[in-house]
Amino acid sequence: MPDPNPATATPRPRRTQAERSHETRLKVCEATLQALVEVGYDQISTTLIAEKAQISRGALTHQFPMRNDMLVAAFQHLVGEWRDGYPFGSDPDREQLTVDQLIDAMWENIFSTQRYIAAMELMLAARQDNELGHALRDILVTWIKARDKITVRLVGGDVDNDEAELKVQLHLSVLRGIAMHQSFDSDPQTAQKLLTLWKRMARNG
Predict the structure, then answer these.
(1) CA 134 to CA 150: how far, in whole Å?
(2) Are 114 and 122 in contact (CB under 8 A)?
(3) FRET pair for 7, CA 20 to 30 Å: which of 16, 92, 117, 171?
(4) How far is CA 156 from each of CA 72, 95, 101, 171, 195, rounded to the nearest angstrom?
């Protein structure tokens, strides 16, 4: 039963500096991803992100001195979610997926979400031949290597088989294209129709 007298209740322990720092960084990453969806990469500013994260600009710049630092951290945060979430965080030694299940899982948990629009904005920025582009590409290349191997294993494939890895990349390329199409298609049913058609083609292939 809770203590009716607040004065005698056990006070909550104060958060450590590391915990406060982690919370601030998380807020900034989430705010950056939200802003990428709403206004796009070109319009991102420290002022906008501080407002969305509901922190002071001083607190933001203490953690992320430069605008690019926020973008890189946001991408690392997002890739970490993909890596640890379903289906990529699954153990292929304990769970196997059919191609249909893999396509559905990737679509539902990654490609159909608003956060993937943020990912596309960052992947476009990764094409630039500058410091930001190089940093984003490093994250992307490392992720792709790990992602492709785990995905091949999830569908029972051989990681040393080049064609098995190419099939994974084809699935991802198609889903990426459907996600892009969904972002401007006025018919909400189109994406699902395309997914159904792709699964049928993938099964036959």
Answers:
(1) 25
(2) no
(3) 16
(4) 33, 10, 13, 15, 22
Q: Which amino acid is at 125?
A: A
The model carries a pTM of 0.87
Angle at 28 between CA 22 and CA 33, to 5 degrees: 130
Angle at alpha carbon of residue 193, lines to 124 and 198, rounded to 5°? 70
Contact 52, 7 (CB under 8 A): no
Q: What tens digit of pLDDT does each residue of 60-96 get? A: 999 999 999 999 999 999 999 999 999 999 999 999 9
Residue appearing with tokens 């590409």:
137
The residue behind tokens 């802003």 is 35
- Can you give the residue ranges of every domain in the chain? 67-204
Identify the DSSP state of 166: H
Q: Which 3-state string (H, E, C) describes 43-103?
A: HCCHHHHHHHHCCCHHHHHHHCCCHHHHHHHHHHHHHHHHHHCCCCCCCCCCCCCCHHHHH
Stated length of the chain? 205
